């Protein structure tokens, strides 16, 4: 028996396997060196930013019923934990998965588009341009104001209903108020109810607790010379409808005597033209200076059915709903999101999501060499989907055209202005798109 042939064959097999192993290792190391460095750079930068605002603790795009949210993760860090891009031709894989709604996407100019619009709108002193400040860090709040020119009102999320006695937790940051006043920016401090229907009921059902809450709010407004109070009571029980309306009336009367505005945040009705639950639109609109429509979270953070945060038909329907149920156009402010969500649909049917700055989506997709997607004329948004190891991921995100069309509603309907949730999500991309859109649409 010739033993040399089997021996040679075995040696050739071992050599081939070794070569394949070395080639694979080289490919992986090359891919890691290509993708890893930008990721580490961005994560490091995001961590520095996170350390500068460790006390940020507000919704940040969470569901309105999910309670106080956590500080947002860096967009890259949050998404990188879930992004599992394939190492072969992603475009070929995705081409059959993407809806064929339009061959080209109007993405050009997004980086310079939302700033040019807000500045022109804010020059009209009758037009409100409001930005929420979800931070208790003075330097962070001031930095956000510096980074977002054109804002003429800020609403820091500093106060919370603390207990059934109507006491408040939180406090005003005088340096932030002073900076805003020095730069001709009004300060409307936000007061929330911790999204607790039970706590809200206990206060509204107790005249002494309700009076104490009104006293506390008025005291803070007077001592710190606030320009306004932004009332953000969500998840109020339908049984407290009349109590809540009476509370808003009493609070407004008290603040009006101090020369302080009262604005009220409202979510869109679940059932169009049905304000039979906690919020009696017409009566509430009579008792406040502004109603701010939170036209976002069409699909909330824990929604089992992925979808846009705010598509144009839904935003337009939400505006019309409030107008048609008794909110005057000259009191209605359109609230728009500066964030969107990556959705992860797993093979077992479970769904998770990560909120990110809307302006960061393209850079994230580009970093992982994923297609930017296609433009939906129906939704006025971009859409893309890509496979993951456990299923697939998808995202709907705005472009400069989206911002222009959202803000055209302000002009067409003669609304009082626009509010953005939140300046924490703002970046050069999304903010410049908003500002440009406001300039294009003009001001009411």
Topology:
Layout: H1 4-52, H2 75-80, H3 90-95, H4 115-123, E1 128-133, H5 138-147, E2 153-156, E3 159-161, E4 168-170, H6 174-182, E5 186-192, H7 197-204, H8 207-223, E6 228-232, H9 241-256, E7 261-266, H10 281-286, E8 290-294, H11 312-324, E9 332-337, E10 339-346, E11 351-357, H12 361-367, E12 374-376, E13 381-388, E14 391-397, H13 400-412, E15 417-421, H14 428-441
Parallel strand pairs: 1-2, 1-15, 2-5, 3-5, 5-6, 6-7, 7-8, 8-9, 9-15
Antiparallel strand pairs: 3-4, 10-11, 10-14, 12-13, 13-14
Helix pairs in contact: 4-14, 5-6, 8-9, 11-13, 13-14
Report the span from N to C terminus.
Answer: 97 Å
In CATH's first tier, which class of the largest domain applies?
Answer: Alpha Beta
- Kindly estimate the percentage of residues that lie in beta strands according to DSSP: 15-25%
Number of domains: 2
Please compute the radius of gyration using only Cα atoms: 25 Å
- What fold name goes in the CATH topology slot of the largest domain? TIM Barrel
Average pLDDT figure: 80
User: Structural class given helices, strands, pairing?
Assistant: alpha/beta
Oligomeric category? single chain
Helix count, DSSP H or I runs of 4 or more residues: 14
Q: Could you state the order of secondary-structure elements as H and E?
A: HHHHEHEEEHEHHEHEHEHEEEHEEEHEH
**Largest beta-sheet details:** 8 strands, parallel, barrel
Shape: globular
Strand order of the largest sheet: 1-2-5-6-7-8-9-15
CATH-wise, what's the superfamily of the largest domain? Glycosidases
pLDDT < 50 stretches: 1-6, 27-73, 84-112
CATH architecture of the largest domain: Alpha-Beta Barrel
For the secondary structure, the number of strands is 15
Helix content: 40-55%
InterPro entries: Chitinase_II/V-like_cat, Chitinase_insertion_sf, GH, Glyco_hydro18_cat
GO molecular function, one term: chitin binding
Protein name: Spore germination protein YaaH
Domain GH18: 126-444
